[in-house]
Amino acid sequence: MLPSPTGPCQTSSRSLVFGLGPSITSEDGIITGAKLPTGRQILRCMLAKKPGGNGVLSQFEATKGVLEQVRPFYKRANIPMVSDKHACHKMVDLVNANNKLRKISQAKRSSETTAKQLEKMECRLDATFPLWPPNVEKLIDNPEDLAFLASMKTDRVATFGVLDKKLQLKVKRREERQAAAAARQSRCEKELEEITAMSSLVSESDEEPEEDTNTVCPTSEGEPSHKRKKTGTNVFIPHDILSRPSVVSLATRLKMSPTQQAAFTHGLVAESGSECTYLSTSYATADRARRQVLETISEERHKQWTPPPSCTLHWDSK
User: Fold this and answer.
1) Which alpha helices (DSSP H) does 104-236 contain, by range?
2) Do 245 and 140 belong together in one domain?
3) Same domain, 41 and 86
4) Helix (H, G, I), strand (E, B) or coil at 19
5) Which of 67-71, 230-234, 260-264, 296-300 has the lowest mean pLDDT?
6) In a domain, 264, yes or no
7) What is the pTM of this model?
8) Which residue stretches belong to region Disordered (predicted)?
9) Residue 12 banded pLDDT, cuts 50, 70, 90
10) d(C-alpha 92, C-alpha 96), whole Å
11) In the predicted structure, residue 200 carries a pLDDT above the cut 70
């Protein structure tokens, strides 16, 4: 319980704090409701975390914890938020402004200036705490979401409705597809690492000793044959290597899936010591390129095909 600078005015169970209302309890540490949080909810939640005390959370940790409680409300309302850094700064500014108001001495709290400051703070606390960007209306396409946001900015009458089951299933399926794609990518990368490790062992066993690289071994015809160690070669790999028709055709003939093709290309480039960030080696790129290239090849083959003048018909049950 926070002590009141004015000498607390006792109520039935909780004291009143100037500029804050009822004293802080552990229940204020959880934000609930069917609307976007108000400034009062965020302020009381911040103070319930007791940032800056001995053995408790720092101000940054407390602010991040409150932000994680606020985020689901905006996500459920489909309203974009500002960056985490900007949101934390706004929360800290609210706490600092309220602390400054509560530090006003008892003798000055009855003045007209203090009354105006208190009224301004009350309006700020009762309104929705704005964590949306300035151009939020341009970022929202759903009219219902825009109407909900307008209500949160004014009278705060609107509340969250029941989630659309179809939309919920759609989001769930999309998340499952993304998780499956990530699992396939991870599995292919693991298999590629195992194959690379095995191939490196084989290549090390097949390499000639360094002292034998310049030795001369006579052939069956008596002519000398110089054995030299292979040093490799420099290769330029274009950024759209997965979209090249020859690469797509080869991967299709080898029955490589887009995930395997992307993982193999990524591993090959990484093994050569190059940066994969300059290339398009994602699963989506390989899949999109395969669809486009195969369609183009099919159309070209169809145009080049000439129907024969006659054909042979064969049927069963003669």
Assistant:
1) 112-126, 136-139, 143-153, 165-206
2) no
3) yes
4) coil
5) 230-234
6) yes
7) 0.49
8) 199-231
9) very low
10) 6
11) no
Is residue 192 within 8 Å of residue 264, measured between CB atoms? yes
Least trusted range by pLDDT, from 159-163, 277-281, 292-296: 159-163
Helices and strands (H, E) in the chain, number of each type? 10, 5
Same domain for 245 and 150, yes or no, is no
Length of the chain: 318
Residue 313 lies in a domain: no
The stretch 77-86 carries a mean pLDDT of: 92
d(CA 121, CA 97): 8
| Residues 174, 94 within the same domain | no
CA distances to 64, 67, 84, 171, 192 from 92, in Å:
11, 11, 12, 34, 49
Q: Give the span between the Cα atoms of 40 and 214, in whole angstroms.
A: 82
Instruction: Answer yes or no: do 129 and 174 share one domain.
Output: no
DSSP track, 294-317: HHHHHHHHHHH----S------S-
Under a CB-based contact definition with an 8 Å cutoff, are residues 119 and 33 in contact? Answer: no
pLDDT tier at 202, thresholds 50, 70, 90: low
Q: How many whole angstroms from its chain centre is CA 44?
A: 30
Residue 182 and residue 98 in one domain: no
Q: How confident is the model at residue 66 (pLDDT cuts 50, 70, 90)?
A: very high
Together in a domain, 26 and 53: yes
> What's the token pair of residue 274?
């190059």
pLDDT band at 258 (very low <50, low <70, confident <90, very high): confident
Percent of the chain at pLDDT exceeding 70: 79
Question: CA 218: distance to chain centroid?
Answer: 63
Non-local (6+) Cβ contacts of 57 within 8 A are 49, 50, 51, 65
- On whether residue 207 sits in a domain, the answer given is no
Which residues span the domain enclosing 98?
A: 9-108+115-161
Final residue before a domain boundary, out of 100, 131, 161: 161
On whether both 96 and 176 belong to a single domain, the answer is no
Number of domains in the chain: 2
Q: Is residue 85 part of a domain?
A: yes
Q: What is the pLDDT of the chain when averaged over all its residues?
A: 79
